[in-house]
Amino acid sequence: MSPSHAHPPAKPGKPGIGKATAHAGHGIDRAAHLARAETLCADAGETFTPLRRRVLELLLDAGGPAKAYDLLDGLKSEAGAAAKPPTIYRALEFLTRLGLAHRVESLNAFVACEVGACARATIFLICDTCNGAEEFDAGHALVDVAEAAARDGFTIERTMIEAHGRCAKCSAAA
Questions:
Q1: In order of start, what are the domains of the chain with their CATH numbers?
Q2: What is the distance between the alpha carbons of residues 26 and 29, in angstroms, rounded to a whole number?
Q3: Which residues contact 102 (CB under 8 A, 6 or more apart)?
């Protein structure tokens, strides 16, 4: 896997249906991604419920960072008014815990990620103009932090850095 994969800008409103998120500069095989997610869940002794699967599908289709309420709107349009905020947040917590999604804290949004790729340290480069997000493996950049933490007896469980600015496309357009 490449050290980075881009998450295109989110569209305003509902997630875009039918567009796969680009990873490492190429489209992903959605069916294979979902099959790997199902296997990961089974290996972890977890259940990949239809709701969890659908939320992951919505994240994959979003084309970039997606807010929980936008995902909820997608569920409501399919399931009627039955979907409530706690439903989507439980599913997102599950996907994040299993490494199938990241939470982009500063945007209060979520992105799907390659199965198994989220166990590493992550850096997000977030464009404040188009809301695009590019993800990089930050392991090499955080060696000093990990060593300092270990010297202090601190165990780092996850690291995510979010840097805001303007992407190359938006900079060129300015």
A1: 4-173 (1.10.10.10)
A2: 10
A3: 96, 110, 111, 113, 118, 122, 124, 135, 160
| Cα gap 16→130, rounded to integer Å | 15
Residue corresponding to tokens 């590493």: 120
Q: Which residue would you say has higher pLDDT here, 13 or 169?
A: 169
Q: How confident is the model at residue 117 (pLDDT cuts 50, 70, 90)?
A: low
Q: Tokens in use for 173? A: 């357009």
Count, residues in the chain: 174
pTM of the model: 0.73
pLDDT(18) > 50? no
